[in-house]
Amino acid sequence: MDKILVVDDEESIRFVLSKGFERIGHATDTAATIEEAVERLNEGLYFCVFLDIKMPDGSGLDLIGSILKKPNPPSVVVMTAEATMKNAITAMQKGAFDYITKPFDFDVIDILINRIVEYRKMSSELAKFKSGAVEQAEGVMIGRSAPMQELFKLIGRSANSDENVLITGPTGSGKELVAKALHSNSSRSTGPFIAVNCAAIPNDLLESELFGHVKGAFTGAFDSKSGKFLAASGGAILLDEVGDMPLTLQAKMLRVLQDREFYPVGSTKPVKVDTRALASTNRNLAEDVASGRFREDLYHRLNVVHIKTPSLSERRSDIPLLAEHFLLKIAKTLNEKPKMIGSGVMDTLVDYDWPGSVRELENVVRRAVIMAPGGTITLDDIPGELSGAKRAGAPGGALGQLVKEVFDSSAHGQAHRKMVGLVERELIEIALARTGGVQTQAAKLLGLNRNTLKKKMTELDIDSE
Question: Is the pTM here over 0.70, yes or no?
């Protein structure tokens, strides 16, 4: 259903919008009166209605209510030549998606259509969650943002290979979920998946945990024990927080990855193993190699395929979807009706920088569900530091610090040029990420024409692919 209905008594408006919508791939019907619009709405399905206020047989504002009562109602965009506060407030209160004034630039209309399409996709997804039509399995990654789509593609390309994979990213960003996705989509999916947290096990016990031991190998070894590597044979093992593995054990790990065999602690007989090795860390292993904390040969052996999980601040558009998912997940755990997110709360969640990434968001939603006395989560139910935290662009935040650093590091008279270059690069890269690399759409998002964007990308050496 990609059809648009244009309701306006001016023939020129109907003609221009119809041609414009058809140019971007949307079939269009038109109506010159409220009565004709009602007939059209009863006959066909539309995903969007562009509705003029002043019509010959009534006010377009009075039609909004009946439009929105329809099953899977179209989004309504109100058009008017009279840009009064009263009209704008009334239109939004009645449930209009947006309100635009004549004359309008079709580039603005194009961006608006894209917003509506994305909004309806997300709303449809959330409706499925709430109705139970889609059951999100525990551990399934959720995201529609460009960084997550790229992550999904990389997982798809890497899953069926038996090569080692190094997964890096901030704490709480879902590195173990990536490892599980790699395994569940591989030819080894029927085999075991075993995760070992190298940071949580004491150094003197980690070798035995991974490779097992024979009876009498050390004090307290009353029986022989097979380790996690053997338990994962035929499947995959995740070496979580591999950057915390002691150097003495790293040499033995290298042998396992090279020769596919190991010696249990206290044994002189090698054990052959068929296990795919996945490793994850929030550390910068390249820096650890340079400082001597991590073996270079092991780093290269693990880093055959490198997957980086994005932080939540790099995928803000996924926050509403994740928050709704956690609300449903928590409600199911508590065996109660899911709570709603109240006014202003979602904006606060999206605006926060989430140093603890997705895990922190889940914890905040869980706390809010517990703290909210009624069925709606309000700003009073979320931690004060969320609403009080400064974003990177806030005065005195990271941007202010960056400006100071640029002033301190720039030659006399060069600070403005250097700062503008830094900001322009960030703006362009974010716009390209949000539009999937489509330069025409990125240019519209930035308010530039495409040639200007291409020129700036060349000047700033931004990859066009």
Answer: no
